[in-house]
Amino acid sequence: GNSVTQMEGPVTLSEEAFLTINCTYTATGYPSLFWYVQYPGEGLQLLLKATKADDKGSNKGFEATYRKETTSFHLEKGSVQVSDSAVYFCALSDQGNQFYFGTGTSLTVIP
Amino acid sequence: KAGVTQTPRYLIKTRGQQVTLSCSPISGHRSVSWYQQTPGQGLQFLFEYFSETQRNKGNFPGRFSGRQFSNSRSEMNVSTLELGDSALYLCASSLVPGTQREQYFGPGTRLTVL
């Protein structure tokens, strides 16, 4: 079946550090891949997406590339800010539009 | 364009009671999905509705039910509440299902069962 595995947290970084959150997936067919972010007390917000192999999604300095050969969609940001502190979820959507989420990775950025 | 709205934002109930949560999707969105989020289990899919019909259902007991109205608004109901039902319930909408379009989430309803 379909599933998403993302790196365990929590992750703590200093401001301006480089961020990588690993995400790998298992899916039949050709899923779309997403990163969502959840700030405290809020719902999930779409951060970026990629719909086919080798697509790169980007938003607010975050990037992720759809790698079919390694079934991965790692999230990266070159220089994190305190305001990036949140929980990040990797997700896939299959042809039936059912979503599968990873367990979430908590990020704390300290000044 | 207004986002997904969920009411109420917070609820406190006691075991054995029932509860109804409401979700209004983004205008023009016709697909609504519900998720339960807990610290231990993460995000778990409850069900999805489109055109007033349930399209997909997650692995939850029959105490969890839902429906969708002709204006795409959706409700979910939990009967005979248990302590373990305490969670953040998230609603998400998308234009239509089956097209791998992104989902947009509401702020959630925080349910506490005492």
Molecular shape of chain B:
globular
Largest sheet of chain A, in brief, is: 6 strands, mixed
Shape of chain A: globular
Uncertain residue segments of chain A: none
- Main interface by residue count: A-B, 25 and 26 residues
Low-confidence stretches of chain B: none
Distance between the termini of chain B: 37 Å
Number of helices in the DSSP assignment of chain B: 0
Helical coverage of chain B, percent range: under 10%
Measured by DSSP, the beta-strand proportion of chain A falls in over 45%
Give the oligomeric state of the chains in this entry, treating copies of one chain as homo and distinct chains as hetero: heterodimer
- What percentage of residues of chain A falls in helices of 4 or more residues? under 10%
Sheet/helix structural class of chain A: mainly beta
Number of helices of chain A: 0
Give your account of this protein's structure.
- The complex is a heterodimer of chains A (111) and B (114).
- Chain A has 111 residues and is mainly β.
- Chain A contains no helices and twelve strands.
- The model of chain A has no long low-confidence stretch (mean pLDDT 93).
- In chain A, the strands form three sheets. In chain A, strands 2, 5, 6, 10, 11 and 12 form a six-stranded mixed beta sheet that branches. In chain A, strands 3-9-8-7 form a four-stranded antiparallel beta sheet, with no helix packed on it. Chain A has a two-stranded antiparallel ribbon with strand order 1-4.
- Chain A is globular.
- Chain B is an all-beta fold and 114 residues long.
- The radius of gyration of chain B is 13 Å and the shape is globular.
- The chains are: A mainly beta (111), B mainly beta (114).
- Chains A and B meet through strand 5, strand 6 and strand 11 of A and strand 4, strand 5, strand 9 and strand 10 of B.
